[in-house]
Amino acid sequence: MKGVIEKNISPNEIVSMCEHVYAQGDRMQMAYAWYPEKNTAPEIIYISSIKDQRPFHAYRCQLNNDKKITSLTNASPLLGWYEREMQDLFGISFFDHPENVKLVLHEGVQSEYAPMDPNYPREKLISFSRQPWQLAEMKNPELQLLPFGPVRAGVCESAEFQYLYAGESILHFDERLFFKHRGMEKKFEGLTPELGAILAQRVSGVGSVAHALAFSQAVETACDVEIPLRAKQWRVILAELERLYNHLHYLGHLCHTTTLKVGEAQGKILEEQLKQLNAQVTGSRFLRDIITPGGLRREPNIEPVKYQLKKLQADILKYCNQLNNTNSHIDRLIGTGLLTNQVAFDEGATGPVARASNIATDFRLKHPYASYNQNNFIIPVLEAGDAFARMQIRIAEITESFLIVEQTISSLENGFIFREFKTIPLSEGLGWAESARGGLFYAIHIDTAGKLARVKIKSPSFSNWRVFPFTVDETNMMDYAINEASFGSTVAGCDR
């Protein structure tokens, strides 16, 4: 696989491989399976980062025909969901998995083949009969169980939560997602890279730029394409515009949960004004259909970024300052949803959630892409790990985003925005981006005809939804909505 330092390992070597990664001072990033050939056993690819090294590392492990392998969840807890996902979608069995229950496919799913098995008919629907969610038996009569979802009040994505509580205290919390799993990774199979980019930006509507960017960079890496500098710079501008409107939506929604109605309205008005600016720049409020493998589809309009964004910047920074000086709002955030540094590291927290718990990780600086290596900016990091810290991180990132856009515009290169290329059969590539919610990966495998054979998406919301329950146990019912909003995760980004 291009773009990584690669090594082949046997199933017997995976535990020592994982221990080596952590001994080097960093952690695993993700794991996924694919079928190199139709009638063979799948291969698992583990992606890791090593502290202070730019390239990611990939470890390839070809399974035996029985599709069984040792679980790494005890050594690297964040891999727990990736292994359960592979178990559901590929039929792989993981020995000694401490969380050996379904994740993506709920109880009641019946199928002769696993959904990602090449022998599974593409157009066939999976048979399903509804069965109850299997939870631990509740024996204490003084405790109460509150089921919530999957249909929730308001405009909320489908998710089911179970609270075991006494009075206002939540003693234990369980979450179940994937009610609307769309099989996006399966939909990529057989597409050209150009069509794949259109699909990628629709995986998560509010992350269109990040997904298109990570996917396109994976294709460009696989096909040895060096895109023009102007296209790289425009990609940075578009990515920061996406970060800005997402952070403003986050701040407005957080105000909603603390009942700060004026703050909610101001945040969402500013978000809307940014989206209108996006439409002037690209023709799309969500910045869609502009990034493609090879560069950009068309030249964006620079004028709104040069002039209108400056006025919005003053209003946005004033709004952020007002939030930081509103005691009724801040009081509800301080100490809420505490995420310790150790849990954040072990369970795979990413983005502002990780940085609020003193993990200085940001792909823009640690693993630079596009033209981020030409920018001077900082990674804001805090230690508190609570909802207030998560809000402060995003406010600090808003300031840095304006700085990055200003620097990029001032050095914007003249020239082309697209480079023609030919797809290389049987090539592979890894691409990544730092979205508004954290680190995002696309791993792509191209078949003999130059079409996509396998596309793996590692979404930041997939990571942060795994982390979230660790902040809920032994907290207060009245703080739950604030805590969930402070994470800023999307269900669509997780479910894919």
User: What's the structural domain tally?
Assistant: 3
Question: Which of globular, elongated, flat, extended, rod-shaped describes the shape?
Answer: globular
Helical content band: 25-40%
Taking Cα atoms only, what radius of gyration do you get, to the nearest Å?
A: 22 Å
Using the coordinates shown, work out and report the CATH topology of the largest domain.
Answer: Cytochrome-c3 Hydrogenase, chain B
Calculate the mean pLDDT score and round it: 92
CATH class membership of the largest domain? Mainly Alpha
CATH homologous superfamily descriptor of the largest domain: Cytochrome-c3 Hydrogenase, chain B
Unreliable residue runs? none
- Strands across the major sheet, in which order? 1-4-3-2
Tell me what the CATH architecture of the largest domain is. Orthogonal Bundle
Q: Let me know the number of strands.
A: 17
Q: What is the terminal-to-terminal distance? A: 23 Å
Structural classification: alpha+beta
Largest beta-sheet characterization: 4 strands, mixed
Strand content: 15-25%
* Tally of individual helices: 16
Descriptive account of the structure:
The chain has 496 residues and is an alpha+beta fold. It folds into three domains: 4-128, 2-Layer Sandwich (Beta Polymerase, domain 2); 144-176, no CATH class; 189-465 and 476-495, Orthogonal Bundle (Cytochrome-c3 Hydrogenase, chain B). The protein has 16 helices and 17 strands. The two termini are 23 Å apart. The model has no long low-confidence stretch (mean pLDDT 92).
